[in-house]
Amino acid sequence: MMVLFRFTLTFYGQAFAPEPFVAGLKAMGAVVEWGADNNEHATPYLEVLPAQPFSTNPNADNHLQWFIAVLDAHYPALRAAGVEQSVLFTHVYYEGGQCNMELFNPNFYACASRCELATPLSAYKISQKEWNKLERECRDAYAEPNETTP
User: What confidence category does residue 140 fall into, taking pLDDT thresholds of 50, 70 and 90?
Assistant: First the structure.
């Protein structure tokens, strides 16, 4: 059974100004979204995704290693700049049957501990039609630039 993952690393803080970090994260290949408003409806945040939004099971470790590199390079400065909470959201998509996996390795756990990283995980069993669409998007994202995908 194939499993697809989508990881999103998000930093929050009431006094956090995310803008100074955007260029450095983009230089690491990140897709970045951020908001600096601090009001009753929003807390400043910085959301970081890898260039490829989905990962297959064999590639999940590569994505996690990339997040470790991001955290190792930026977390101390982010914390000093007002980050109060760091969260790696993990969304798991699978089609049918029982789904067992080992996702996080000891290197990731060590980094998560250093960075006080929360790691919520949501699993979605999806229909065959939804699965086919996600699988096609993932296959297209990992296709070679000159490769055509039906």
Answer: confident
CA dist 46 and 37 (Å) reads 11
Q: How many CB atoms lie within 10 A of CB 18?
A: 24
What residue spans define the domains of the chain?
3-142
Is there a contact between 14 and 38 (Cβ–Cβ < 8 Å)?
A: yes
Residue 122 identity (one-letter amino acid): S
A 10 A CB-CB count for 88 gives 22
What is the per-residue pLDDT for 150?
36
- pLDDT of residue 4 exceeding 80: yes
**pTM for this prediction:** 0.83
> Cα 85 vs. chain centroid, distance in angstroms?
15
* CA 50 vs CA 15, 33, 38, 80, 141: distances in Å: 26, 12, 26, 23, 12
Is pLDDT above 50 for 147?
Answer: no
Distance of alpha carbon 143 from alpha carbon 21, whole angstroms: 30
Phi, psi of 125 (to 5 degrees): -85, 120
What letter represents residue 22's amino acid? V
Half-sphere exposure at residue 64, Cβ-oriented, CA atoms within 13 angstroms: 21
**In the block, which residue shows the tokens 């000891």?**
106
